[in-house]
């Protein structure tokens, strides 16, 4: 099986062509993919931010829920 090697410029052009084709021919699927990626990034950022705070004990959570 032959192997094709692309230089940096050829790779960029190919990727650009693929993205344009996706936008033109499969817009709903591409939009869904972008939204999912953004949601994943937001979730990862929220988790990272949450790890900076102090943890709350289970007793404190129960007390807050019972109040």
Describe the protein:
There is one protein chain. The protein is an all-alpha fold. It has one domain (8-66). The chain is built from 3 helices and no strands.
Task: Output the radius of gyration.
Answer: 23 Å
User: In whole angstroms, how far apart are the ends?
Assistant: 69 Å
SSE pattern: HHH
Shape: elongated
Number of strands: 0
* Class per helix and strand makeup: mainly alpha
- Summarize the amount of helix as a percent range: over 70%
Number of helices: 3
The percentage of residues in β strands lies in under 5%
Number of domains: 1
Average of per-residue pLDDT values: 89
Largest sheet: none
Poorly predicted residue ranges: none
Key traits:
3 helices; 67 residues; single chain; mainly alpha; 0% strand
Any chance you could write out the topology, listing elements then pairs?
Blueprint: H1 8-25, H2 27-50, H3 58-66
How would you summarize this macromolecular structure in one to three sentences?
The protein has helices at about 10-25, 25-50, 60-65.
